[in-house]
Amino acid sequence: MTPFEIVKRTPKNNCRECGYPTCLAFSAAVAKSGEDFGKCPYLDTTGLNVLQPPQGVALEELSGQRDQVLIEHLKDKISTLEFSRIAAPLGASLRGDNNQALSFLFLAQEILLDKQGILLDGHPPDDPRDQILLYNYIHSQGGPDPALDWIGLETLPNSISKVRTLATYCENRLAELFAPLSAAAIMAACRALGGTPHPTPSATLGCIIPVLPKIPQYLVYWESEPDEGFPAKVKMLFDRQVLHFLDLESLIFSAERLADRLALELA
C-alpha cells in the first residue's frame, strides 16, 4: 500500500498522538519503513497485517529508514517557506547567498540550515533525530517571544503518556548526574550552554537554558536530603507557548539533548 492509501484510513486531523507531525508523515513511515501502524489509535487497521515489519530486518535499520523518510518529508515541507519572513519569529539570522539560509544556536552549537541540509558546528549532524527536531522547529515558522510562564509537561495536551519518557531520558538522568556535584559546578555547566540563574524557593538551584532561540527550558534541581529520605530530583519546566514551535516528541527529544550536553560539560 502507498502512503496515500494508508492516510485515507487515518482521521487526517494531524493530532500527533502517533509521534509524527502529520497523518501523511506517519503513513509514509508505515508504508516505506515498517513503522508500527498501531501507533495511530484511530487507524482503520482492517487488512493491514501485510504492513508488519518484514522478518529478518533489524529494528535499528527500520528506525533509521523511518527517520530518513521523516527527514525528507520535513525538508519538502520547508522547501516552500520564505526564510526572510520567518527568520525573526524563529529567533534566527539570515545567511548565505540571497539570504537562503538560517543561522541560530542549538544548545550553544551553531546551526546553519538551508533547504538542502543542516550543518551543526560546521558538520552534518550524526543523529537524524537532531535533523528532525531542527526541521520541525523551522516548519513551525516561529511565533511570539516566550512568555516565561512555566508549566510541567503534564499540563500540555495529550502529554500524560510522555511524562515517564521525559523522566527517564532527562530528569532522572540529570538528578543522578548532579547528586555528587556542587551547585556551583552544575551552574557552571548550565552557563556554558547559555543558561541564566533563575532561583526558586526551596530548590537548590534553578536555571533557564535556551535550547533553541524560542525554546527556553527551566531546569529546577533539589539536592538529596538523606536524613529525610529524599533523593536528588530534577524537574524540567516549559514555556506555556512551546507547542507553537515543537510537537511533544520533538520537545521531549530537545530535553534529552539538553541532558546529553550537560553530561558532556560535566564529564
Could you please describe the fold and organization of this structure?
The structure is a single chain. With 267 residues, the protein is of the alpha+beta class. It folds into three domains: 3-72, 3-methyladenine DNA Glycosylase II, Chain A, domain 3; 83-139, no CATH class; 150-266, TATA-Binding Protein (2-Layer Sandwich), CATH 3.30.310. The protein has eight helices and nine strands. The chain has helices at 3-7, 23-33, 59-78, 83-90, 128-139, 163-178, 183-192, 248-266; strands at 93-95, 101-106, 109-114, 118-120, 150-152, 196-197, 205-212, 215-222, 233-239. The strands form two sheets. A five-stranded antiparallel β-sheet has the order 5-9-8-7-6. A hairpin with a 2-residue loop joins strand 2 and strand 3 (109-114). It is globular. The N and C termini lie far apart (48 Å).
Set out the fold topology.
Elements (H helix, E strand, L loop, with lengths): L2 H5 L15 H11 L25 H20 L4 H8 L2 E3 L5 E6 L2 E6 L3 E3 L7 H12 L10 E3 L10 H16 L4 H10 L3 E2 L7 E8 L2 E8 L10 E7 L8 H19 L1
Antiparallel strand pairs: 1-2, 2-3, 3-4, 5-9, 6-7, 7-8, 8-9
Outline of this structure?
The protein has helices at residues 3-7, 23-33, 59-78, 83-90, 128-139, 163-178, 183-192, 248-266, and strands at 93-95, 101-106, 109-114, 118-120, 150-152, 196-197, 205-212, 215-222, 233-239. With 267 residues, the protein is α+β, with helices and mostly antiparallel strands. It is globular and about 60 Å long.
